[in-house]
Amino acid sequence: MRSHYCGQLNETWVDQTVTVCGWVHRRRDHGGVIFLDMRDRDGIAQFVVDPDTADAFANADRSRSEYVLRLTGLVRLRPEGTQNPDMPTGMIEVLAKDVEILNTAATPPFQLDEHGKVGEEVRLKHRYIDLRHPDMIDKLRLRSRISHSVRAFLEKEGFLDIETPVLTRATPEGARDYLVPSRTHPGEFFALPQSPQLFKQLLMVSGLDRYYQIAKCFRDEDLRADRQPEFTQIDIEASFVEEGDIMGITESMIRQLFAEVLDVSLPEFPRMTWHEAMRRFGSDKPDLRIPLELTDVDDLMKDVNFKVFSGPANDDDGRVAALKVPGGASLSRKAIDEYTRFVGIYGAKGLAWIKVNERAKGIDGLQSPIVKFMDTIIEDLLDRLDAKDGDIIFFGADKASVVNEAIGALRVRLGGDLDLYTQNWAPLWVVDFPMFETDGNGRLSPLHHPFTAPACTPDELKADPARALSRAYDMVLNGTELGGGSIRIHDQQMQRTVLDILGIGEEEAQEKFGFLLDALQYGAPPHGGLAFGLDRLVMLMTGASTIREVIAFPKTQSAACLMTDAPGAVTSEQLKDLNIRLRHKAKADNTAE
């Protein structure tokens, strides 16, 4: 129905007849001449309709915002003084010979020109309108280019695109499963996959050697800016590899991706251990663009007459850390109070601080409600932090986990508020993760998943599991975890040891993932992989604030679709087919029906 997209028209097509289809972006009547700005996925072009073409003029006169039109006309240069060099099509216009109304449109719930002022709830309710905006089209176009680049790279590296099941069984991967009742097996349920983890390992046992998939994954968990109940992974697995092999392949893929899509040459990917990342930045996904670091001061605080500091400093599980902000002494008390409330979100009971006004005056040159407790150690403290006039020092003192989370988050907040970024892109590999973490009841749980290989023998693992490291690795970019992976357990004895440590008995293990345990006895090769969050990757590369901006039809933060009103009720007949009966609270007497 068309010869060109609107955005393709330029001086090249002058004096040629073209046909376009699209939406009326704007209609203007200038003294009998009608101007139609026509829009499609490639851009906007200006059409001029004269009264001389009666039928075309009549249809143009009837047209309104978001009407769907087909126009044919002659491309010509715009008159001098009316050209718009800021638009790709701004040097030309099309003199329309024919205007056909393909469809009318009701008044849209919002004008695309006001896209940035419209609330997200309205935009998600009418997502099909929202997606017409050029910014949204550009994000989805870039997402498509990213997927194409990834596929091309992996195919060239010998990886096979293999689909894995969406209807599977619940397995322990760290989040709550979405369950699907089975009609043919009453009382039993499928689970939607949290990831293709077990199936890609089975593909390695099958000898397929190099696998990838752009896979849909599902997790029923609390949402935030970079989480959705259904999301997309770039899933990669390979056999006969070690950590460096997977990290090398995937780093090359990301480097090539940024060069092709954004024309950006990423700097070298440094490597940092998990323990170093937590010590210096309080986070296992540190944003290296921010030149602020946490400094341990536990040893200085052990004997101070201030239990807020001395208590954690003498506790094996405690930590006292300082965060120096150069030039931060100019922060107002109101700003400091706001930061105090902010760290409280992460469990901190308060936020101590010292402003260094005139260091040469000793304590008299410092401003802080806590400095009176530190007369004996203040010079050592300032020396360790290399504090200078005009700096502010913030302190975190609590359980190490609380300090890391609270002061680590404060570091990121300050980086944004004070615009401390030193570069545009800061990639990083975080390696040598702990094998296990301790839950609230003191029990060990896998930091990643129970199929991650430890960096030790089974006997060494059993002797001291809490200190064991894993063969896991995460790729981090600008403080966001782009992807994580590991070398997997391929040995039956090691897998059994890990499950024993986790308190998963043989019967439970067989019930949950016996198919994987069975497969390991039939010649499983050494293997490992990595999964990228495609949505997060696109979010970073487009500069979007949430992954909802780069998913065509996302859910809200309450895991609902405003456009389709999902989730929704189903009929009693459907429930009967599934052998399910719902229990409701009766409104009148609050008893179960």
Automatic annotation (TrEMBL):
Its main location: cytoplasm. It is found in: Cytoplasm. It comes from the Bacteria. This is Aspartate--tRNA(Asp/Asn) ligase. The keyword RNA-binding does not apply. Homodimer. Pfam families: GAD, tRNA-synt_2, tRNA_anti-codon. GO terms for molecular function: ligase activity. The record marks H30, G81 as: Important for tRNA non-discrimination. Residues 197-200 are annotated as: Aspartate. Its EC number is 6.1.1.23. It catalyses: tRNA(Asx) + L-aspartate + ATP = L-aspartyl-tRNA(Asx) + AMP + diphosphate. HAMAP family: Asp_tRNA_synth_type1. Keywords: Aminoacyl-tRNA synthetase, ATP-binding, Cytoplasm, Ligase, Nucleotide-binding, Protein biosynthesis. Transmembrane segments: none annotated. Residues 140-554 form the Aminoacyl-transfer RNA synthetases class-II family profile domain.
